[in-house]
């Protein structure tokens, strides 16, 4: 071997004579170019999918606008369950494509690590009996999650006052509870179903949450109300931490307050309102029915580098003697003060409508049709959400439309299956009634079916609503162009069944005078005037003079449809 002269370094070479370091750099460059190409392809795919988002949700957007129009006709000026930036702009699609493939994975990893590490530490501390330390860890973990989301600076106005029974806050989105955990010294009241995840369950134990179930038994609900009363009373005396409650019990847009549940106000002790004031530009954070789904909303919020919010503590509200006796009055007083502080409006659409949107989605209907104005209906009918769910399932079975709307062909088939095949003239009358029920839309949604067909008020339709016409009733029950005594008896039987105290239909509608058995002959004679059959003109004139009879016949028609 030849010796290498002093000061000369021997080059490490491969058989081809290329330096090894140079080969490594070439390989690294190839890998990086491949990764960059893959990233560009991924960005293109994400942009393509984002650009199709609006087209994929076109029917939902249309149903949202249809819902707004229908509710406005019923006296609800504002629809509170809509996200104002649901539809994606071109700029938002570009942002999602660029940051969704770079920043989003990093934030998701940070979010998961923060949540699980907090849960593990809190669970360990709870297991060894260090409750206070577990609570402190959970509070710090909540603040770290907010930092990951982008809430670097939180402006706090005012302070939490002592000797209050509960702190009540408006509810918009999934981060609201994190702000409460990070900035309040209070015991949260939360829905048990939201804490089925192991990590969240450990955090709930560390924060000593009062958990309740919406579908729980009456006894379980009474037990929770008892805990609320005891905790609030002790907190008002300065012996315990106050309760923390979202009295709206659901999320909605930033500019509306819906009716408050009265649980936190029932003890009749002072409460302190706290306002969340989100300040956003291109991404509305509200978690609403008519808006992005959970993962999409989470992604769009995480793609923000910085988000702003202000927390404001309002003065303590002490109930009057009248409000102590009437928790709903106390709740309404607090809601009015909070609405004034937010510069928001109040709406009478409540959490029950949100729950029905969930049931509508489970029944494969568009969620928006679940916003039926439940509180208004409940004030006029002994209606339950269970009955509405049953009617949703029946309605969906008759729909061929994948979005869960009843087109004319489905409706006439339903009528034919129930009353026998109708002739062309009868179908023409039924078609006119269908178009009136559907507000001239090409289909009938569940909200229209519930309010205009299934539920028949004794005093007639309310303003903004309509009902099955007398001509359509005649077309459904009559034999051809005349109502015979047999058809009249069938009509009378349907009306009697719908007003039978043993019928679930009466439990749906409440007490009704009913027609009574054996009354069909007298009714037929009154309408026929000595003839063998009743014409449509005579029938319409007769029922027009007896609103109670018309309401009962409408109930009979709906009862026959649903029972079939």
Give your account of this protein's structure.
Helix content is 54%, strand content 8%. The protein is α/β, with parallel strands linked by helices and 564 residues long. The strands form four sheets. Strands 1-8-7-2-5-3-4 form a seven-stranded mixed β-sheet, sandwiched between helices. Strands 6-9 form a two-stranded parallel ribbon. A two-stranded antiparallel sheet has the order 10-11. α8 links the parallel β3 and β4. α5 crosses α8. The termini are far apart.
Give the tags:
564 residues, alpha/beta, two-stranded parallel ribbon, 13 strands
Summarize the structure.
The chain is built from 24 helices and 13 strands. The chain has 564 residues and is of the alpha/beta class. Helix 8 links the parallel strand 3 and strand 4.
Average per-residue pLDDT, rounded, comes to: 84
Structural class: alpha/beta
For the largest beta-sheet, the strand count, sense and barrel status come to: 7 strands, mixed
Strand content: 5-15%
Q: Helicity level, as a percent range?
A: 40-55%
Question: Widest sheet: strand order?
Answer: 1-8-7-2-5-3-4
Q: What general outline do the C-alpha atoms trace? A: globular
Q: Evaluate the radius of gyration.
A: 32 Å
Distinct helical segment count:
24
Distance between the termini: 102 Å
Number of strands: 13
Report the uncertain regions.
none
